[in-house]
Structures are given as C-alpha cells and as structure tokens.
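Notes from the 1:1 (GR / supervisor)

We went over the backlog. Supervisor wanted to see one worked example end to end before approving the batch request, so GR pasted a single chain during the call. The sequence is below; no edits were made to it. Supervisor asked that the structure be written out right there so they could see what the output format looks like.
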Amino acid sequence: MKTTSSKNKNFTIRTANLTLPLVKMIVQDIVVNSREVSETRERLDYLVGGRGKGAQDDDYARELESIEQANELKSDRLDKFVNELTQLELGVAQVDEGFVDFPAVREGEAVCLCWHLSDKEVMYWHPADEDCTMRRPVDLPLIRQSGDRSFSNS
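Structure output shown during the call:
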C-alpha cells in the first residue's frame, strides 16, 4: 500500500532533514507497536486455535478477550501514528520496517527521498514507482535543488 500526498507536497533533502526529529519519533513508535501488535496477534491466534468450542466462558477465555481488546487499542494507536505521517504528506508503504518516503522531484521526475530509522539523515532516493529496496544515494541534482550553495557553481 503506497500512500501518496493529496496536496502534492515536495520535499528537498534540506526540508526532509528538518522534519526528521518528529518523523523519527513517530517511526520508532510505529516500528515498536507494529511488532508488538503482530506478535500478540500470532500468540492469540495460536492460543485460541487450540481451544475447543465448549471452553468459551471460563477465566482463560476472558483473559484472552482482555488481551485481544488491549491489542486492538494498540492497533488503533498504531493507525494514529501512521496517520500523523500521512498528515505530514509522507509515504508510509514500508513504515513498519522503518522506511519513510518524502515525495520529491529530481530533474522534473517524481521521486521519493527515502529514509530509514537507522539513517542519521536523508541520504537516499528512488523513483516514485519503486520501493525502498531500490534506493540509491542522493546525487548532485538532488543536492543542488536543496539549495546547498557549495554545489551550485560546480
């Protein structure tokens, strides 16, 4: 699922890096919560799958239901975190893996500046129709359009 911005906001390397403190906090929360929700869902599926149909009204069943409700709340919180990123007009296709795309333009073509939770700053990009696995290091055209004067006269 690739999320695109409705307002077609475009970032430069500089503007993307300026948003990173906020984006990093949100992505950290998403990665942790996503992992927890997924692991809890797998455990619940395993535990519920091993129970017979007649054992629905005991303390164990109520405990499983309580865990399910807590997991749903965590899942709702996860959706809110993702919504925060989409409100910033970022691509979140692989956000549960720590990747975020900043829509951008490179030499007139739509691209994404690609950042991963392990990156110190935005240092990669990929064409808009590819995913983060195809990312490559930023190059001179992207650096120039960010307004870095040290490259503008080269």
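Supervisor's comment: DSSP finds four helices and four strands in the chain.
Batch request approved.
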